[in-house]
Structures are given as structure tokens and as C-alpha cells.
Amino acid sequence: MNIISERLLLRAIEESDLEMIHQWSNDPRIASHLAAIHLPSSFYQQKKWFEDMQSQKDTFRLAIQLIEDGTLLGYIGLWHINWFDRIAEFGFLIGEPENHGKGYGTEATRALIRYAFETLDLMRIYTFVLETNLPSLRSCEKSGFKVEGLARSHAFRDGKRVNVVLLGVLREDFYNLK
Ligand SMILES: CC(C)(COP(=O)(O)OP(=O)(O)OC[C@H]1O[C@@H](n2cnc3c(N)ncnc32)[C@H](O)[C@@H]1OP(=O)(O)O)[C@@H](O)C(=O)NCCC(=O)NCCS
Q: How far is the CA of 130 from the centre of ligand 1 (A)?
């Protein structure tokens, strides 16, 4: 069953989305902000990423689609889902820079966190964000994430060492959001 919010549809990623996702994954304007390093990747690798995902029980990635006109905006997901401790790592990406700052990232995150707590019965979601990625930090905070720690000099981007921030959201953080 899909996840629907005010403006967005979160649905399974289809093979027809891969061309767009592949472009974003190679776009320095986007990929350089991700906490995990993104080397140049081939379309074959992108297809393998998609195919491997189909059988992974600890990974849950969804396309973010604009309901109004069907535009694919990006994708969002949970991975390293640990069904015993009921925790998962979170990540999100809005592809085209002109779609940044319109609240889509936050709206999708809130919808996915609600789903994680109310349907997947998870207890805690966490994420790693480059300290330099202010839009991501702000968006996560608006969805209830709290800063829990700092991994000093944990990444190397554009010739500089960068700190990585650990953020986490518990049920009470999310439900206490204004
Ligand atoms: C991070 C990302 C997913 C956020 O999605 P988004 O739709 O742009 O985010 P939102 O519009 O919901 O919220 C962004 C917030 O950051 C704020 N922001 C933007 N630029 C900022 C800056 N330079 N400094 C501080 N805050 C900033 C916005 O004003 C907004 O906060 P507000 O609503 O209080 O004004 C998106 O920008 C993106 O995909 N970026 C490239 C890839 C990426 O960084 N992915 C996340 C990896 S952890």
C-alpha cells in the first residue's frame, strides 16, 4: 500500500525511475552532499542496485512523486532495518535543485517516519548527515530528529575533512512535534 501525504505519493521504485535516479546519483550538486560517498556509477550498477533491493529484507526505498502532475521528485528510504532492536537508518534525496526548499523533503520524511512507527512498528530512526549539509540538518530537525553525536573528520569531500552528525528520532520526539 502506498504512503500518501498532502502533496506527495511515496510508492515503490520502478525500473522506469532508474534513468532519473542514475542521473542524480552521478550529479555532483546532489551526490556531494550525501554522507555516503558516491563514486561515478554506470547504469548497469544502478540496475543491479534496483535488482538487489527487491530481495533485501532490511531495506525499504520509495520513490517520492508529486501527486499533482506525477513528477518524480526523488527517493527516500530506510535501510539497515534491524527487526530485533526495531531501529533503521534513514536517508532522502530530492533530485532537481529547483525542487529544493519547497518542503518536499520534510513532508516525505514525516510521512515515512509515521509509517515506520505506525505500520512497521519501529522504535527509532537514525541518520548520518554531513555537518556542511544545512538543508538536510534543518529538514531532519523539522521531522523530529535530534542531534545525538558528532563523528569528527569522518568524511572527505572537496579536498576537506568534514564532520558527520548523527541524528535520531524516537516516537516521543515525533509525536511532540508542533
Ligand atoms: C536535503 C534535502 C533532501 C532536503 O529536502 P528539501 O525538500 O530541500 O527540504 P525542505 O524544503 O523540506 O527543508 C529544507 C530546510 O532547510 C532550510 N535551508 C535551506 N538552505 C539552508 C541553508 N543554507 N542554511 C540553513 N537552512 C537552510 C530551508 O529554509 C528549509 O527550512 P525552513 O522550512 O525552516 O525554511 C534536499 O535538499 C536534497 O536532496 N539535497 C541534496 C541531497 C541531500 O543532501 N540529501 C540528504 C543527504 S543527508
A: 12
Q: For residue 178, is pLDDT > 90?
A: no
CATH of the domain at 10: 3.40.630.30
Count CB-CB contacts under 10 A for residue 65. 21
Note whether 88 and 61 are within 8 A (CB): no
With 90 as the cut, is the pLDDT of residue 176 above it?
Answer: yes
Average pLDDT score over the chain: 97
Residues near 141 by Cβ (< 8 Å), separated by ≥ 6?
147, 167
The per-residue pLDDT for 88 is 98
Grid look-up 549539509 returns: 133
In the chain, how many domains are there?
1
Residues at CB less than 6 angstroms from ligand 1: 30, 33-35, 74, 92-94, 100-106, 129, 133-136, 138-139
Residue appearing with cell numbers 556542511:
132
Please give the residue range of the domain that contains residue 116.
3-175
- Protein residue closest via CA to atom 45 of ligand 1: 93
Could you report the per-residue pLDDT of 112-151, keeping only the tens digit for each?
999 999 999 999 999 999 999 999 999 999 999 999 999 9
Pairing of strands 72-82, 60-66: antiparallel
